[in-house]
Amino acid sequence: MDGVEELYRLSKLDKALEDPNVGHIVINLNKILDKRLIPGLEIDARELEDGIDARITVREGTVIEKPVHLCFGVTHEKAVQRIKTEVEIQENAEVLFLAHCIFPNAVDVTHIMDARITVGENAKYTYLEKHIHGEYGGTKVYPKARVELGKNSRFKTEFELLSGRVGLIEIDYETVCREESVMEMTSKVSGRGNDIIRISEVGHLVGEHARGVLTSRVAVRENAKAEVHNKLNATAAYARGHVDCKEIIQDNGIATAIPIVQVSHPKAHITHEASIGSVDTKQLETLMARGLTEDEAVELIIEGLLS
Amino acid sequence: MGILETRNLGIEFNGKKILDDVNIDLWEGHVHAIVGPNGAGKSTLAYTIMGLGGYRNISGDILFQGESIKDLRIDERARRGMTLGWQEPARYEGLSIEKFVTAAVEDKSHKKIREVLGKAGLNPNLYLKRAVDRTLSGGERKKIELASILALKPKLVMLDEPDSGIDVASLRNIFDAIKLLKENGSTVVLITHSLEVLNQAEHAFLMCCGKIVEQGKIEKIRKYFEKKCIPCTHENIPDLNGGA
Ligand SMILES: Nc1ncnc2c1ncn2[C@@H]1O[C@H](COP(=O)(O)OP(=O)(O)O)[C@@H](O)[C@H]1O
Ligand SMILES: [Mg+2]
Fold first, then answer.
1. Ligand 1: which of B9, B11, B12, B13 to mutate, most ligand atoms within 8 Å of CB?
2. Cα(B79) to centroid(ligand 2), Å
3. B239 lies in a domain?
4. What distance in Å separates the CA atoms of residue A164 and residue A123, rounded to the nearest whole number?
């Protein structure tokens, strides 16, 4: 058993990968199980003792229509997986990467992602990271990315836990935005039990007219803890940015929001909003007045918030 | 005995009686109105009947289908068949209209959602995929709330100011939906200070200073609107046609 079937089933990838125009790579722990390249997409991956070292390149001017699937799975109960990637989206290229991070049986699984990403001039890069975890809470996830955006490029990333327990998630993303580039970094995580969520998203708007939005949506229930550090730093004229953090706490959950906005050019402008609180009473009572229990109502409200 | 009855219902806030010995009896399958000036206690009466947080420390009793419900939670009351439409419906983030409307109903099919949105006066094609969030106007959210109530087919529904935030053209939709609720067998309570809404009812209660001061056929209650006077000791004679 190399776990490929389980990974395909959980990520619902079977269908998507039937299409010969869809590029992908499927990894279980440190083994490359499957890979398909398409014109303009290069994946040069090497198996390491505890993970994978991959260089991923989208060639200049290549527009890849369909999402490229990256499946980073660990079907083992105990393991450490280290993924090192260098991603280069060259000038005028466009691509969407859908990363499926699947740790369904984790009792003690650590997943460390260390990505260096460069997005060339006028290029567009979307990176959606979707996690499927097991129910034991035995996952420790450390996604780290350092991103450089070229002139007039676009970068959008979204981190989302689709199912299962968080365990520990420590997101550490930092992006440097050159002139006229646009950056959107979003994380959506819901924790319960003893889950710990730490999010650090930093954007440096260093080019004129660079724009950036950092968005966090977090819910903590039971004894879960969340800490969100969002920092936007604008040093160039006409740079625009917004930090938006919303956290819901229930039970004994603890949430912290630390938005930092720093502006060192008089023609730059950054705003922020952060709110932490329990579920809104009227939202809750409306759904309860339709017959949902309090728990069902909270579930639906949080599901909406994280959708 | 009607579907819902309050017996000497009272509630106080900061030592002040907001509901004072309220006795109402709602006839099953009828459309009732509760009218009265701002601050009369109309919304408080509805919240108390629904059992909202902060409105549970009551004196007297509330009977639904002959049984006391005063110790039941909101959702337990709802599952017995009663519900409430807010004057200002809640805003959510990200919650789709589709999910909201069918949250508590078995039939979650698109056909059903389209049907109830249409009946509440909304074009399903424009609303199905949107969220019940701040991008919707107050009037739109009210129609969506009404759609969710139509989907629910409650035994008893209390609608707090069903016309507030609704434009003149859409008022017809709201009134049609109220008729439909009645046709489906719901007992309807319209909380209002509008003559037009009062006219949709068959029976009305006049409320002032936390008390029911008059009740009967709407012709009888309507004259208090026309004369702008109410039969109580309320020193500040309210304008029943105006205000928010
Ligand atoms: N939770 C509360 N705490 C304190 N006062 C309240 C509360 N709810 C209602 N009231 C007071 O009770 C009175 C009646 O309010 P309400 O029921 O909203 O009137 P109506 O709906 O008839 O306009 C008002 O004076 C209002 O301020
Ligand atoms: Mg009111």
1. B13
2. 24
3. no
4. 34
Tell whether A292 is within 8 A of chain B (Cβ): yes
Cβ pair B83:A306 closer than 8 A: no
Whether B241 maps to a domain, the answer reads no
Whether residue A258 is contained in a domain is answered as yes
- Write out the H or E segment, with its range, that includes residue B220: helix B218-227
For B90, the closest of A246, A286, A294 (CB atoms) is A286
Contact status, residue A88 vs residue A118, Cβ threshold 8 Å? yes
Contact between chains at B83 and A281 (C-beta distance less than 8 A): no
Q: Work out how many domains chain A is built from and give that number.
A: 1
CA B32, B37, B38: angle at the middle one, nearest 5? 110
**Residue B232 belongs to a domain:** no
Report the alpha-carbon distance of residue A189 to residue A229 in Å, rounded: 14
Question: For position B172, which CATH number holds?
Answer: 3.40.50.300
Nearest-atom index, ligand 1, CA of B13: 4
State which residues form the domain around B123: 2-227
A222 belongs to a structural domain: yes
The strand pairing partners of B186, in sequence order, are: none
Nearest atom within ligand 1 for CA of residue B47:
17
How many domains is chain B partitioned into structurally? Answer: 1
Per-residue pLDDT of chain A (307 residues; tens, 9 = 90+): 578 888 888 888 888 888 999 999 999 999 999 999 999 999 999 999 999 999 999 999 999 999 999 999 999 999 999 999 999 999 999 999 999 999 999 999 999 999 999 999 999 999 999 999 999 889 999 999 999 999 999 999 999 999 999 999 999 999 999 999 999 999 999 999 999 999 999 999 999 999 999 999 999 999 999 999 999 999 999 999 999 999 999 999 999 999 999 999 999 999 999 999 999 999 999 999 999 999 999 999 999 998 8
Q: Whose CA is nearest to atom 20 of ligand 1?
A: B39
A286 is a domain residue: no
> How many CA atoms, within 13 angstroms, populate the side-chain half-sphere of residue A63?
3
